[in-house]
Design a protein that fits this description.
Strand order of the largest sheet: 5-4-3-2-1-6
Distance between the termini: 12 Å
Radius of gyration: 13 Å
Order of helices and strands: EHEEEEHE
Largest sheet: 6 strands, mixed
Strand content: 25-35%
Length: about 110
């Protein structure tokens, strides 16, 4: 399940929505604590983390007049958010599970 939200969405609401979803479901939202960043929340199997919801910060940067996105703590950059999400639907890399891009719905 692909869940994309590009407005303020509180973490408690994110947990409530993802608890009902399949593993790999995620919500991408504006970060409430880091300006110009996004928060990626993913439902994962309980054995991979104390909680079955994990959160990652997506950083936006500008280099040579080109915008790019990356997960904080990684070096791999992507030209768009969709490219980052698509890549991590195939290769989990730093994530505990691949992202599920099979369905989408709006909240």
């Amino acid at each position: 399940i692909l869940i994309l939200i590009f407005f303020r969405f509180v973490q408690e609401a994110v947990h409530n929505v993802l608890q009902q979803a399949d593993y790999g479901a995620f919500i991408l939202r504006h970060s409430t604590t880091h300006t110009d960043c996004y928060a990626l929340s993913i439902k994962v199997p309980k054995f991979t983390h104390d909680s079955n919801i994990v959160h990652y910060l997506i950083e936006k940067s500008m280099s040579n007049n080109q915008l790019s996105y990356r997960i904080k703590g990684t070096t791999k950059q992507f030209p768009t958010l969709m490219a980052l999400l698509t890549h991590h639907s195939v290769m989990p890399e730093i994530l505990p599970i691949t992202l599920n891009l099979n369905e989408s719905f709006t909240i």
